[in-house]
Design brief:
The N and C termini lie far apart (58 Å). This protein is of the alpha/beta class. The longest helix has 14 residues. The protein has a nine-stranded mixed sheet with strand order 3-2-4-5-1-10-11-16-17, with helices on both faces. The protein has six helices and 17 strands. It is globular. Helices cover 23% and strands 25% of the residues.
Length: 296
């Protein structure tokens, strides 16, 4: 479960950013994180959890520096020994925003679980720090982390079945959602939907969140979720589910679910995690930016 918020503190925002493909969208999504982490007063720590994400970490740091953040630091954490470094814990304590990068959520969990670094990240969010995750690594922020075998022969099984996913324990920054942001070239919208349905069948309390390329969501301290970015976010809500046979069917038998709600949300749309209701963007007097060239 999330760390306890002590008197005098407010929990910080939690930011999930999907796979980044378009450079312009990348800047826009990262600036949203930067805004919520303190903007010009932001003290940012980027944690690269594997060598494959080091280049992206330094690219992000360059952007944050260009936007005149107060400070930006990149730290590579490649082992459990490094996750127990007191200096790294001190860096977390001094930051206003933390951004985690990694491609394998299960590896991240085995690397961070139970370490002083993990405890510092959890404590930091409970004290108001903005915590973010990019791509597949964002799943580590959830208490219930979706994992699956990418080598599985899906053609040999029903579309929806009990063996489709497994849950692994994440950092537990939030216990309200299960996030899937597997790049589309490894899965696709239909398989993402299947994984989220499977997760919700096991635990209808969870809200399934499917991040598309160049899209993100933020969970504010008031438990309102907001979509940002140029793509859609898939929401699978099982709170109203009336029946599922997940507890009685064989592992590879078709799984059935009744009463599931699906939402496809674009930028500015929100979802209240308390009332389980989706809402369109609020009306504004500010005109939208022009999308066509002027004739003058």
């Amino acid at each position: 479960m999330p760390a306890i918020v002590l008197p005098g503190y407010t929990r910080g925002p939690i930011v999930f950013i999907g796979p980044l493909h378009d450079p312009r969208s990348e800047e826009r999504l990262l600036q949203f994180f930067w805004d919520n982490a303190g903007a010009y007063g932001a003290r940012l720590l980027i944690l690269s959890m594997e060598a494959a994400t080091d280049a992206a970490a330094h690219r992000f740091a360059h952007l944050f520096d260009r936007w005149e953040s107060d400070s930006v630091t990149v730290a590579t954490v490649g082992s459990r020994a490094e996750a127990q470094n007191p200096q790294l814990v001190e860096m977390v304590d001094q930051a206003t925003g933390l951004l985690l990068l990694g491609e394998n959520p299960v590896r991240l969990a085995s690397l961070l679980g139970g370490t002083p670094l993990a405890q510092a990240v959890r404590r930091g969010n409970a004290q108001g720090k903005t915590i973010g995750g990019v791509g597949s690594g964002g799943a580590i922020l959830c208490e219930h982390m979706i994992s699956f075998d990418a080598r599985q022969d899906f053609a040999a099984h029903p579309y929806l079945h009990r063996q489709l996913i497994q849950f692994a324990p994440g950092l537990g920054i939030t216990n309200r959602v299960a996030v899937d942001s597997i790049p589309s070239d490894r899965a696709g919208t239909w398989m993402q939907l299947a994984r989220l349905l499977n997760a919700v069948a096991y635990n209808p309390f969870l809200l399934g969140i499917g991040l598309k390329t160049d899209a993100g969501v933020i969970i504010y301290p008031n438990n309102h979720l907001e979509v940002f970015g140029q793509n859609n976010v898939l929401v699978v809500d099982g709170a109203g589910m009336t029946y599922t046979n997940v507890h009685e069917v064989a592992q590879d038998a078709p799984l059935s679910m009744l009463g599931i709600q699906l939402h496809m949300l674009g930028e500015g749309y929100t979802f209240d995690l308390g009332s389980r209701t989706a809402h369109p963007p609020q009306a504004t007097d500010i005109p939208e930016a022009a999308t066509t060239k002027s004739a003058f």
